[in-house]
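agent: user wants the structure for N-acyl homoserine lactonase from Roseibium album. delegating to structure tool.
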Amino acid sequence: MALTIHVLDYGDIELETSFLVLGHECGRIRRVPVYGFLILGGTHPVLVDTGYRDNAIMESLGMRGLQFHDNMIENQLAKHGLKLGDIRYILHTHLHIDHAGKDDKFPMNTTVVLNRREMEFSVSGIMYPQYPKPDIMHLVERIYEPEAMRFLDLEITGAEEIIPGVWCEAAGAHTEGSMNVIVETAEGLACICGDVIYDFNDQIVNHVHTNNWMEPRVTGNHSGSKREEKGAIKKLLNNYTFLLPVHDRPAKIQNQQVVGRLAMTVPGPMSETVPERQWFPM
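agent: tool returned. relaying tokens verbatim.
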């Protein structure tokens, strides 16, 4: 059976636009989704990211959380006939406040998988308070329970397989320990890329404030160099048929360009197409 990726809707957050794209529309507030991803069709159900803990915790970043009953993780899984205890692996693209807030709802025999460098980075004090204490302390507790945690060393080992057809690789962007999750689908490789990309239109399609051909715009929220961010985005556009960020709808990629957007399942029908030469700045 072919692997499929189902998008889970964990709610929305309101934040400043320049957080999404560096220097773009400073002071303007935008509402963006927070997605998780359920990988089905393999040996075990796999979940990528768990969203944010509650609306109140987003206030620590000066953001507004918009999470309602339907967005609760147990309700999102129930739409696919699953309970919390049915998830075998939770993979984290990284551990920021809106990505790892619901791990404590899962039993200790659900294995949380993350890049060891991300765990180190989360307790370094860099980018605080994007790593809230309740989320990180729960992960520390998991370290001492058999099978509750699996660390990857992606900068040393290269890609590591989780189940057949699903593997992780170092993202090389956003945070020092961010990782991408790669899934073999019937229509090509899909990459769940966390926050390496926030906004396809403003970073890639119309790439605001950028003159050069096919030069992506970086986000306003990264810990590495701008060159590393650009290179990581270009790598995604070069290597994968589908890209799935956490705060924008999935995209289909051809010849390093966005050719369509998808809804809540990958592979799936494209809901719209993008003119070929919209890479030029407006």
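agent: one observation worth passing along. The chain has one domain: 4-273.
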